[in-house]
Amino acid sequence: MKVTDYIKQSNDDTLVSFEILPPIKGGSIQAIFDSLDPLMEFKPPFIDVTYHREEFIYNRRASGYYEKTAIKKRPGTVGICAAIMNRYGVDAVPHLICGGFTKEETENALIDLAFLGINNVLALRGDARKFEGKFIPEKEGHPYAVDLVKQVKSMNNGDYLDKNIENGMPTDFCIGVAGYPEKHFEAPNMSLDLKYLKDKVEAGAEYIVTQMFFDNQKYFDFVKACRETGIDVPIIPGLKPITKKYQTSSIPRHFFIDLPSDLVNEILKAKNPEARRQVGVEWCTMQSKELKAAGVPVLHYYTMGDADTTKQIIEAVI
Ligand code: FAD
């Protein structure tokens, strides 16, 4: 079933969903099951699985020169989606990115997903590769998520890249996209970022999932600004508990978001790792309760494989 249908059928009850990462290559699917089994009691209607493009690594050779090799550290998104649907009977939402894909590779990936009975995708641009200063699309690829949304929408209309295909099977994907309550770091300003977000919705996106945030006011202001801009699709808040001290600098660095002083002070004051984790749990619980009271459609947790922490938060919220 589609994410938007779950939201429509929820009768304004707040749903709970999760995002997971494929394990590092060499890991087993059991790690995914171990991180999801304890959370299934919360009956998530859907589970997102992230996609990770290849990265360049540089190996020093005996000659002293460095050899550049492309490796995919976290393959398996589509396989994990199939495994989740098979084991739990829950819809899986694969993340689909522009980076590293030509339009034809995207089309073929969408055909595989449709054949597997997957009918939700989160359409994203992806980030620049490490060691590349900016996002570089493939020669025959998409530069922005909006272009990917348009391709999925075309396939939903039965239009394939090869115009000789007549009566192509129309796919039936519900398309989600990313939104940034604190602005995407490359956007010159919030109003332009919102304009591009509206473009994604007008191209066919049916819901938005936000970047994580730690101050709910940022989400409420974002939703208000979206509505004023004419974006009327559901906006699902993305939530992540801070559990470790280093995250007070790594999260702002990687995700270009602010952490409230109260949260950072409490984390820094905590005497040991368990006390720090507890601060993060309490903060995320407080955020979740307020968002639920405000009537958000879904609480979407970036679990990062930490089932215990996510479980503790949800038990306190529902
Ligand atoms: P876009 O919507 O294309 O926007 C990218 C930037 O370009 C923005 O600054 C926007 O304002 C600007 N822009 C958009 N359209 C135009 C235009 N026409 N002209 C000029 N500028 C424009 N990354 C992964 O690699 N794998 C994942 O699984 C993944 N999952 C994610 C899940 C969520 C919920 C979120 C919030 C992010 C996720 N990301 C993931 C990260 C995401 O790929 C990056 O944030 C990326 O830098 C931007 O992706 P986007 O889809 O928002 O891009």
Polypeptide structure, described:
The structure is a single chain. The chain has 318 residues and is of the alpha/beta class. The protein has helices spanning 3-9, 29-36, 77-88, 103-115, 145-156, 190-203, 216-229, 247-255, 261-269, 273-293, 307-317; strands spanning 15-20, 46-49, 55-60, 66-71, 91-97, 120-124, 174-179, 207-210, 235-236, 238-239, 298-302. It has one domain (3-317): TIM Barrel (Alpha-Beta Barrel), CATH 3.20.20. The chain contains eleven helices and eleven strands. The strands form two sheets. The protein has a nine-stranded parallel sheet, with helices on both faces. Strands 3-4 form a two-stranded antiparallel sheet. The model has no long low-confidence stretch (mean pLDDT 96). The structure holds flavin-adenine dinucleotide (FAD).
Short characterization:
The chain is α/β, with parallel strands linked by helices and 318 residues long. The chain contains 11 helices and 11 strands. The longest helix is centred in the last third of the chain and has 21 residues, at 273-293.
Supply database-style keywords:
318 residues, globular, alpha/beta, binds flavin-adenine dinucleotide, 41% helix, nine-stranded parallel beta sheet, 11 strands, 11 helices
